[in-house]
Design brief:
Layout: E1 6-8, E2 40-43, E3 49-54, E4 60-67, H1 81-88, H2 100-104, E5 111-116, E6 121-128, H3 132-144, H4 150-169, H5 174-185, H6 199-204, H7 207-217, E7 223-229, H8 233-243, E8 268-274, E9 281-287, H9 296-307, H10 313-321, E10 325-333, E11 340-347, H11 353-369, H12 374-391, H13 395-409, H14 414-423, H15 427-437, E12 443-450, E13 504-507, E14 513-518, E15 524-531, H16 545-551, H17 562-571, E16 575-580, E17 585-592, H18 596-608, H19 614-631, H20 635-648, H21 669-679, E18 685-691, H22 695-706, E19 730-734, E20 741-749, H23 757-768, H24 774-781, E21 789-794, E22 800-808, H25 813-829, H26 834-852, H27 855-867, H28 874-883, H29 887-897, E23 904-909, H30 915-921, E24 926-929
Helix pairs in contact: 1-4, 3-8, 9-12, 9-15, 10-11, 11-15, 16-21, 18-22, 23-26, 23-29, 24-25, 25-29, 26-28
Length: 944
Amino acid sequence: MLRTFRAAGAAVFLATTALVPVAALPTPAAAAEVPPIRFTTRTLPNGMKVYASLDRTTPNVSVQVWYGVGSKDDPAGRSGFAHLFEHLMFKATRNMPSETFDRLTEDVGGENNASTADDFTDYYEIVPANHLERLLWAEAERLSGLVVDEAVFKSERDVVKEELRQRVLASPYGRLMALYLPEASYTTHPYKRPGIGSIEELDAATIDDVRAFHQTYYRPDNAALIVVGNFDPAQLDAWVDKYFAGLKNPAIALPRVTVKEPARTRAGVFDGYGPNVPLPAVVLSYQGAAASDPDAPALKVLDAILSAGKSSRLYNSLVYDKQIAVEAFSNADLPQDPGLFMVGAIMSSGHQVAEGETALLAEVKRLRDAPPSAAELSEARNELLAGALRERETIEGRGSAIGYALRVDGDPNAVNTGLARLQAVTAADIQRVARKYLADDRRVTIRYRAESERPKGEQVARAPAPPATVAAYAGPVFTLAAEADRQKPPGVGEPVQPVLPKPAEKTLANGLRVIVARSSDLPLVTADLLVKSGAWADPKGLAGAASMMAGMLTEGTKTRSAQAIASQTESLGASLSSGGGLESSSVTLNVVTDKLKPALAIMADVARNPAFAAEELDRQREQALDGLRVAYQQPGDVAGLAAAPVVYGGTPFGHAVQGTPQSLPRLKPADLGKLHAAAFRPDNAILVLTGDIGPEQGFAAAEAAFGDWKKPATALTPAPMIAPQGKPRAVAIDIPGTGQASVNVLKPTIARTDPDYYPAIVATNVLGGGYSARLNQEIRIKRGLSYGASARISTARTTGSLRAAAQTKNESAGQVLDLINAEMTRLAAAPPAADELKARKSVLVGGYGRSVATSEGLAGILGNYALYGIPLDELGAYTGKVEAVDAAQVQAFARKAFDPAAASVIVAGDARTFSADLKAKLPNLEVVPSAELDLESPTLKKGQ
């Protein structure tokens, strides 16, 4: 897990937002009430801690093990080691062949994953509750008897290297956040090393290093087991005693990092460069506190004041008022040992890092010079508490909150007491910590620019060669037992039947269809207004018009400025967003239950009365253009932008939803107003309300907010039929210097209402719908060529699309393309085996169930049913329809839809390394330099 930061406003890689002069602000709202997470605690004789939190409302259980080892514990010369080891923990044990964890989780409808941070490594699974004993057994297995052999070690090391290339080297700002920020911020503490490591140090690691690491840190007295969900407490205790209590700790002492980072005595500057940096960036890094420090709550609230949401100080100053940054962010990174506080900005086109540094320093000085207002303080606390409430919506979220409090705060009870400490923060506390930590003479300025701006003759510093071996190992070495000698996993208990929400619906007099489904007693409500019009309605030459129209709904109405919308919404602890896709546009609200009425009034105003002010459009246009500049330097993003013209060329879907550098400057406020007037009308919309709300309450709220919305007398414009006629294409988009290639195989496919829908989603899941699906097995697990390979089917009203994709090192692009094509062909040639088919159907059923468990997920499912004319009782029929698909139907669909010869290919990356190989496979390959990419041209090239 890389260090993360909060951006002010939406990320530049996604939709962007802007503000206008502030209207009168409302009285600060009372803070959200966050129910405490109730859990029991026990410690086994071997020192292992056990935390359990019961929830009888779910059919699932989350099993988590949090180890007190993280990236700061990486041996010298082995950065990235804790993270590499996280990958190895999913392989074989004495009694489990490699990939068994996926058989026990994904194949029964659950999921598993893990993350590595500076101070901890956590592993989690979510499974049907009747599989709890099996997961406890499996976690004890990998704690006590992990098998680490040379082949698995080398394969997973290759996977980690691809993850590094994808997240760091292929991302324009990956080097800045993952490499340069920690390197510049610390001189002594091991927090200075990148958690994901380096290619050189990963290559230097040996199998002895790995085995010694497991022996040293993976032990009962350094582990905490957390179980959240539906279980019998007495039975859980008995199983924990059975599988964990007898495990022994090694005789060696548990090492701990004791080094302390010295206090800074002067300011510093760090210059960093990257090969694919379209916009310069600047970060100011200050020394911060530890998570357990009494100052930590005030620093977290200060962070929220600076950059949480569109009414934050950094957004208002740098992005909106001065318009010098496309994105502004801050982060209170407060780990176990004293961490850092940072503020930063990605500059807008034409603006330099010096401007950003000056503006950021001015905002820091404001905090030192005067305390924040009461409204700012209340809004920040509400946002933090509402975020905690959303985290508690899922069992895995609750488990993670307990684990994080234990490993980072040093006290699991901080999961609840920490909220009270946030509430107690005063304006004076904010000013005090700003003066204490954010001093001008103790900052490091990190300037990040394109490699082309590096001064001529400046030598690139090279890290010293890592040592050959960091630890000799003389401990036990485990091997997979012969099949006859293996201990078998425990049996499976009686299944717990899920209780699905029962949606109710009503159509208001004006034609608005309202759907309400109570899904939780947690005080959260999601309101999703879906309008049945999207990018297909873009006028010719105005690609991105519908997307811009939808995105600008929150940027000012006839009575509220954008700044007022942001301030009023965020003061309620609510999130309000809008956006558009190919076939629909939406406005989505998530809010605590007792704030629903005022929040829904804002949402209704945004949807019904947008202003589309010219100055707001200018701001949004510039941010969108800068967003495209960034996207054009990211292989996966640029391939995604090119997908619609390649797959749907010549149809209303055949252009980039987000628009192009050519089309966005043509947009005028009148264009957006015309699109809105045609699409945003009650008889063309669906309002879905889910969460802590019943039908009558929901219908009354809808009537109050939308009942007086007038239906126009004009007829609705029907959505078009989409029937692509173009031949398959092969396109290579050249991004010189980027760290990876994105390989994509794409083709049109079926409508959502097609009778083959369920065979289609099962077939696609067999091909690439999860970790154990065929593409990931062949590309990641067997060959280590990618961090992940997948396939996804996007059904639509008339014609959807299929996309199989993976990112890999540039040199492997052709090999990965061959593997994707081979798996598509293989599924068409022979039906899947019974066990594989059962497992892949379980993945679909389990994922569906987890989506239904959150208010936003349920709202999305019900909204899509309504959009595509699917009866709402499909909610309860979904599982049965998936289970009814047989192997012959899967093969038949694959034969019809997965023929590589009928598919297009898009590969985006450093083409000098793969174009010759691709041309040998694809004689009709079109090579398009990213600098010449024109998504409006049939050739994808400017001037052609």
